[in-house]
């Protein structure tokens, strides 16, 4: 098939069903509804909502969507074929499917004779009857049916004649879509192309084919692309590739590859530009850390670190970027590290709103300071707020909001008992006044943070908006034992932005102190800049 923009592909998202089978992933009804509405906004035409009747959560999910339907997407209920030696009309498993009130239902049936005889413990003939009876019954109840041929590729390799019979049975019973499932994820792209081509030749020409791939061989996306090029029109997958074992085909990679590289129509271009935000939104809702190195949507997908790369991409982005980041809602990032060159420093300065000339002596000083600190264990590519403060200091533009005169942290430890709260005492100079404050906390870092905030809050009330959201510790040279150097990364945020700061020391409290103090300082800098911008805007 020749790929061009006239070819429409139908994206089928199963994040809310197959995706939730990922180990460690759990969602509430409200979580599912939020994700469904976000996918609807993204333009996904089919959203599989779950298995009504399998658990109360999914039943309520479909009830909610009956009361407040999605804007454009078809919400799909999922279920297996009826049980052996029953009739579909008498199988109670199918009644919640009808009660869900969806126009479309996805029915899963067995394609692999091994699963029929060993899993269902029935005959090959009865399995065909189960497929036919279930689909015909749902059709008689006014439902449109997508048939998922489970373990299709393994079944076809084992017994191609029988596997094809299952498809033909589903088609004759009234299924409008046939999705070929690589359930075990063991198929490779060259096999995918050949088998899908065989299926296209073996079934009626008006039948619409789909593909459902798993990532156990790390080829789920490649397999789905191969299947599309061989003739399928529906692609099933999940946001961020979530799913059981190694996951499902990642729609965040598939959609841009299909639309931008192969010329297929999946969603509107304006919706495609929401892809990175959707990826991060879903990861936040399911409480999993985003994959910063994910293709297309990861924070590092268009990050440039090497000096030669940066200078080249500054001249022409095509040198090291395969698409424009904005097409998928992402952005270019210039990463600062010991591998950086002058180009990195200049580019990074621009992102901070700082105009810096390569001939400025401060530019070379910044680069040398960067390399010296990174050799000591600092990591500025993960702590850009600290690097901006370093840069401003070198240029004489670092604002002095406060000065730490000293601090002490005390913890009481009693053998056999849990540690009591830590107590921190801190002395700070603010606007020519010395402030001494103490505060306790759930550990020494929390106590230090609380004491510092307490000392500053009368001078900077907005500091209450700053929140310490993440605290990471890494031992840099563990072979030195308790004398090892420690790197601490602290992530903070206000109501509209996140930033990360870094501290390094052989004393973990000293490293934490550095990162916490710079985190508060950077938050105050952001507030100061926002107030200045507001004042300028009001003046205009």
Tell me what you see in this structure.
40% of the residues lie in helices and 19% in strands. By secondary structure, it is of the alpha/beta class. The protein has an 8-stranded parallel β-barrel with strand order 1-2-3-4-5-6-7-8, surrounded by 8 helices. A 3-stranded antiparallel sheet has the order 11-12-13. The chain has a 3-stranded antiparallel sheet with strand order 14-15-16. Strand 9, helix 13 (307-315) and strand 10 (333-334) form a beta-alpha-beta unit. The model is unreliable at 1-6 (pLDDT under 50).
Low-confidence stretches: 1-6
What does the radius of gyration come to?
Answer: 29 Å
Strands of the biggest beta sheet: in what spatial order? 1-2-3-4-5-6-7-8
**pLDDT averaged residue by residue:** 90
Shape: elongated
How many β strands by DSSP? 16
Distance between the termini: 58 Å
Helix percent band: 40-55%
Largest sheet: 8 strands, parallel, barrel
- Helix count, per DSSP? 18
Percent of residues in beta strands? 15-25%
Structural class: alpha/beta
EC number: 2.3.3.21
Organism: Brasilonema bromeliae SPC951
Family: Belongs to the alpha-IPM synthase/homocitrate synthase family.
Pathway: Amino-acid biosynthesis; L-isoleucine biosynthesis; 2-oxobutanoate from pyruvate: step 1/3
């Amino acid at each position: 098939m020749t790929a061009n923009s006239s070819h429409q592909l139908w994206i089928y998202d199963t994040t809310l069903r197959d995706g939730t089978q990922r180990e460690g992933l759990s969602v509430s009804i409200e979580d599912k509804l939020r994700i469904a509405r976000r996918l609807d906004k993204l333009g996904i035409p089919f959203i599989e909502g779950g298995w009504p009747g399998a658990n109360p959560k999914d039943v309520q999910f479909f009830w909610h969507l009956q009361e407040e339907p999605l804007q454009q997407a078809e919400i799909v209920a999922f279920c297996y074929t009826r049980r052996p030696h029953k009739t579909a009309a008498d199988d109670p498993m199918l009644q919640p499917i009808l009660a869900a009130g969806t126009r479309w239902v996805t029915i899963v049936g067995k394609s692999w004779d091994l699963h029929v005889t060993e899993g269902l413990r029935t005959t090959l003939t009865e399995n065909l009857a189960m497929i036919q009876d279930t689909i015909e019954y749902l059709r008689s109840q006014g439902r449109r049916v997508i048939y998922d041929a489970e373990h299709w590729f393994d079944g076809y390799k084992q017994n191609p004649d029988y596997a094809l019979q299952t498809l033909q049975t589903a088609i004759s019973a009234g299924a409008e879509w046939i999705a070929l499932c690589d359930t075990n994820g063991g198929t490779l792209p060259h096999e995918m192309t050949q088998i899908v081509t065989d299926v296209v030749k073996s079934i009626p020409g008006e039948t619409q084919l789909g593909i459902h791939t798993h990532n156990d061989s790390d080829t789920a996306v490649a397999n789905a692309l191969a299947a599309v090029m061989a003739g399928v029109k529906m692609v099933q997958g999940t946001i961020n590739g979530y799913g059981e074992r190694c996951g499902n085909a990642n729609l965040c990679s598939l959609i841009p590859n299909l639309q931008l590289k192969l010329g297929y129509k999946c969603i509107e271009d304006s919706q495609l530009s929401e892809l990175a935000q959707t990826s991060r939104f879903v990861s936040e809702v399911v409480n999993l850390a985003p994959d910063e190195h994910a293709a297309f949507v990861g924070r590092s997908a268009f990050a440039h670190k090497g000096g030669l790369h940066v200078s080249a991409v500054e001249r022409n982005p095509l040198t090291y970027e395969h698409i424009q980041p904005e097409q998928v809602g992402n952005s270019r990032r210039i990463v600062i590290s010991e591998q950086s060159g002058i180009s990195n420093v200049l580019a990074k300065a621009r992102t901070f709103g700082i105009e810096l000339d390569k001939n400025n002596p401060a530019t070379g000083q910044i680069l040398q300071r960067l390399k010296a600190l990174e050799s000591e264990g600092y990591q500025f590519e993960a702590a850009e707020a600290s690097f901006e403060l370093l840069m401003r200091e070198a240029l004489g533009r670092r604002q002095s909001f406060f000065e730490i005169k000293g601090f002490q942290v005390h913890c009481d430890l009693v053998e056999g008992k849990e540690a009591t709260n830590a107590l921190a005492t801190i002395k700070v100079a603010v606007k020519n006044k010395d402030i001494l404050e103490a505060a306790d906390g759930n550990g020494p870092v929390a106590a230090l943070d609380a004491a510092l905030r307490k000392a500053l809050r009368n001078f900077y009330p907005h500091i209450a908006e700053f929140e310490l959201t993440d605290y990471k510790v890494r031992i840099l040279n563990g072979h030195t034992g308790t004398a090892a150097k420690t790197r601490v990364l602290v992530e903070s945020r206000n109501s509209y932005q996140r930033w990360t700061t870094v501290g390094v020391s052989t004393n973990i409290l000293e490293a934490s102190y550095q990162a916490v103090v710079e985190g508060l300082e950077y938050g105050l800098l952001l507030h100061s800049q926002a107030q200045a911008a507001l004042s300028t805007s009001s003046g205009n």
